[in-house]
Amino acid sequence: MSAETTVPDAGSTTTGAVTVRFYAGAAEAAGAEERQLPLSEGQGLDEFLSRLPELIAAPSLERVCSRSSFLVNGVRTKRETGALSPGDQLDVLPPFAGG
């Protein structure tokens, strides 16, 4: 699948974009494996993820993200304390089945 870009709402202040890569069930819920998404000024990981389902019109992504792990630039990051900067790469890793 190709990467898609979403434009921010008029009136929001963006500082750049984040590349979000979705894996397994997250890719299915998002309808894409990768998206370029706008990052609002001062937005942390938790706030960004809270807006994500609405931003890409994928309501089922909220449930997937509530159970997922996240990597920012290849480093595991907690949703509650993670920071994002323009140009970052965010990986959304849902729980994988199997052993």
UniProtKB/TrEMBL annotation:
InterPro entries associated with the record: Beta-grasp_dom_sf, Mopterin_synth/thiamin_S_b, ThiS/MoaD-like
Positions of transmembrane segments: none
Pfam families registered for this protein in UniProt: ThiS
Residues making up the signal peptide according to the UniProt record: none
Gene3D superfamilies: 3.10.20.30
Protein name listed in UniProt: Molybdenum cofactor biosynthesis protein D2 (MoaD2) / thiamineS
Species for this entry: Nesterenkonia cremea
Lineage: Bacteria, Bacillati, Actinomycetota, Actinomycetes, Micrococcales
